[in-house]
């Protein structure tokens, strides 16, 4: 089985915030780490990259009077370092849409599906002052649906509705502010309508596809799919490959979606196996997982599969598209301009990255919009990470050292009771349950099951009281700490996808090395025996002081002043 994992490509116009992180990047990383344990490293590939093209970058470059690539070069490297070095996102390939492999593949792919592409004229706003057409972010105006006065030509930030430039009320050029005129221009359109029946059948028959994704995609299809413009009258992007399309570029959403394929091709080009990418894109023995925010559902569940269907090569359609709802920040939407929220270069300066990873997975908005509250984040760290998990690990390893000289004690099957059997059954079955949830994209639900081992483990120790049994029934004490020691191993492996650094510390304290080489399916086995020696216990986590929230505003202000001098120009 080959497993393909992808996170939606972050747009380089801004540093991602916590909502962006949990919506795609972090969620995909947790799943990719799980998949490597489950299916083997060589059978999994995890890719994404910086989405660099499109009108927001071009508008900003025009305002600054510089080349767009000068802006995106620095932004891409900044984000890449944050993901790979700071947040420990385990991409096999984090690339960019300015990659030559990507640009070449996009042009070749679009030429291969020309049977479904047609040319037609359309009327578009045109700025007579700047002598340019005004697609997408080049134009602003009032949203016709909610009345928001600063809506963009492609989407309204308030109500989230997708727009087109001609729908805006009181439109104005985003560069000079003048009122545009309407002029005709020629564009190339991908005819989505030809795939309505195929898309509907695919979605309805896909038992693994989450219901929220199906619902949005089927609603789009029911409303009636229409040809969608593939090209834009812009200069920053991939030149459109069609005859007569000189001076036009490929619409950023179409080419960014094709990046999922080009990133795979590029990875295997770099490893010297240029044909191996096909193993992840063709055939029945492939499952693909995409992690996105809910605003990206139509692109991933309608447009992208339609493009794959248009190709005659037989590309593998998405198996699971795991879409989160929105993460709010203290009851408000994240806002860069109003400085509402936490950004991913700020967060590690506030507390440990593993704490953030754990909190975000525990708050992952899988069923509905979720509110990030600092008091809840502190509760999760102090009670779950520290009291439940950290305390359990520390208790077990400390007692093995204290009562059995650091060696996992003997197992005495004749001394098992119902309390032992119940906890052992939980340890054995939890990896199976978590696996089933993870493979449906339910990472938070999976984490609910993982923490049960620590909670039930603490209760198990309290019930069995090995500190008393060592005095009068040594075999019972041996069983208790044999079972508990093995459960800590299980816990560390199941936590590894979520908090890799901390999980490895737990694993190492058990006297084990190489957690990344473990097998998920053996996580519930009781393999530590009386010949195995553990190391000394030391605290893995520590509590967050309750004064942290009171001091947060001053800390953030200081951090943001520091980052204003570090962030690339595009990201300030």
Automatic annotation (TrEMBL):
Cofactor binding note from Swiss-Prot or TrEMBL: Binds 1 zinc ion per subunit.
CDD domains in the cross-refs: Anticodon_Ia_Met (cd07957), MetRS_core (cd00814)
Pfam families assigned: Anticodon_3, tRNA-synt_1g
GO cellular component: aminoacyl-tRNA synthetase multienzyme complex; cytosol
Keywords tagged on the record: Aminoacyl-tRNA synthetase, ATP-binding, Cytoplasm, Ligase, Metal-binding, Nucleotide-binding, Protein biosynthesis, Zinc
Subcellular location(s) of the protein: Cytoplasm
Residues bound to Zn(2+): 143, 146, 156, 159
Gene3D superfamilies xref list: HUPs (3.40.50.620), Isoleucyl-tRNA Synthetase, Domain 1 (1.10.730.10), Methionyl-tRNA synthetase, Zn-domain (2.20.28.20)
Chain span(s) of sequence motif 'HIGH' region: 10-20
Domain Methionyl/Leucyl tRNA synthetase: 3-396
Reactions performed catalytically: tRNA(Met) + L-methionine + ATP = L-methionyl-tRNA(Met) + AMP + diphosphate
GO BP term, example: methionyl-tRNA aminoacylation
Domain Methionyl-tRNA synthetase anticodon-binding: 433-556
Motif position, 'KMSKS' region: 333-337
Predominant localisation class: cytoplasm
Cofactor: Zn(2+)
EC number: 6.1.1.10
Role noted for this protein: Is required not only for elongation of protein synthesis but also for the initiation of all mRNA translation through initiator tRNA(fMet) aminoacylation.
HAMAP family: Met_tRNA_synth_type1
Record-stated family: Belongs to the class-I aminoacyl-tRNA synthetase family. MetG type 1 subfamily.
Protein name: Methionine--tRNA ligase
Originating organism: Acidianus hospitalis (strain W1)
Phylogenetic lineage: Archaea, Thermoproteota, Thermoprotei, Sulfolobales, Sulfolobaceae
Gene: metG
């Amino acid at each position: 089985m080959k497993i393909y994992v992808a996170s939606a490509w972050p747009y380089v116009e801004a540093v991602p915030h916590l909502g962006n992180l949990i919506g795609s990047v972090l969620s995909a990383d947790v799943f990719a780490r799980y998949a490597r344990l489950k299916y083997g490293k060589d059978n999994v590939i995890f890719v994404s990259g910086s989405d660099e093209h499109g009108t927001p970058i071009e508008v900003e470059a025009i305002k600054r009077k510089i080349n767009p690539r000068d802006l995106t070069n620095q932004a891409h490297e900044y984000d890449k370092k944050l993901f790979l070095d700071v947040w420990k996102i385990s991409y096999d390939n984090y690339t960019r849409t300015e990659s030559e492999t990507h640009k070449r593949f996009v042009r070749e792919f679009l030429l291969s599906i020309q049977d479904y592409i047609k040319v037609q004229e359309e009327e578009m706003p045109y700025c007579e002052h700047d002598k340019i057409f005004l697609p997408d972010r080049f134009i602003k105006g009032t949203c016709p649906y909610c009345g928001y006065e600063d809506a963009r030509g492609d989407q309204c930030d308030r109500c989230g509705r997708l727009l087109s430039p001609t729908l805006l009320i009181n439109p104005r050029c985003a560069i000079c502010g003048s009122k545009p005129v309407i002029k005709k221009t020629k564009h190339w359109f991908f005819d989505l309508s030809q795939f309505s029946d195929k898309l509907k059948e695919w979605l309805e028959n896909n038992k693994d596809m989450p219901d929220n994704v199906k619902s949005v995609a089927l609603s789009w299809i029911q409303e009636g799919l229409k040809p969608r413009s593939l090209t834009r009258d812009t200069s920053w992007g991939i030149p459109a490959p069609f005859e007569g399309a000189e001076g036009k570029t490929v619409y950023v959403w179409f080419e960014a979606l094709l990046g999922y394929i080009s990133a795979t091709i590029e990875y295997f080009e770099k490893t010297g196996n240029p044909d191996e990418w096909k193993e992840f894109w063709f055939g029945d023995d492939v499952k693909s997982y995409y992690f996105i925010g809910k605003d990206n559902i139509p692109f991933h569940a309608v447009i992208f599969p339609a493009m794959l269907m248009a190709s005659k090569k037989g590309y593998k359609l998405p198996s699971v598209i795991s879409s989160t709802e929105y993460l709010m920040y203290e009851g408000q939407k994240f806002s860069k301009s109003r400085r509402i929220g936490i950004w991913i270069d700020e967060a590690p300066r506030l507390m440990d990255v593993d704490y953030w990873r754990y909190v975000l997975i525990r708050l992952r908005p899988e069923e509905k919009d979720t509110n990030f509250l600092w008091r809840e984040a502190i509760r999760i760290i102090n009670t779950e990470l520290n009291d439940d998990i950290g305390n359990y690990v520390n208790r077990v390893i400390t007692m093995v050292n204290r009562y059995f000289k650091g060696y996992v004690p003997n197992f005495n099957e004749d001394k098992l009771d119902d309390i032992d059997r119940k906890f052992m059954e939980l340890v054995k079955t939890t990896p199976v349950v978590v696996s089933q949830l993870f493979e449906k994209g339910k990472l938070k639900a999976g984490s609910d099951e993982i923490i049960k081992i620590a909670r039930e483990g603490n209760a198990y120790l309290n019930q069995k009281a090995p500190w008393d049994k060592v005095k009068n029934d040594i075999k019972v004490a041996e069983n208790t700490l044999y079972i508990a020691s093995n459960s800590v191993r299980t816990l560390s492996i199941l936590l590894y996808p979520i908090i890799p650094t901390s999980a490895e510390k737990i694993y190492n304290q058990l006297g084990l090395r190489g957690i990344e080489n473990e097998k998920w399916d053996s996580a519930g086995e009781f393999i530590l025996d009386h010949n195995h020696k553990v190391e000394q216990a030391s605290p893995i986590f520590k509590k967050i002081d309750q004064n942290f929230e009171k001091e947060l505003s001053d800390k953030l202000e200081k951090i943001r002043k520091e980052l204003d001098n570090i962030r690339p120009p595009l990201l300030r």
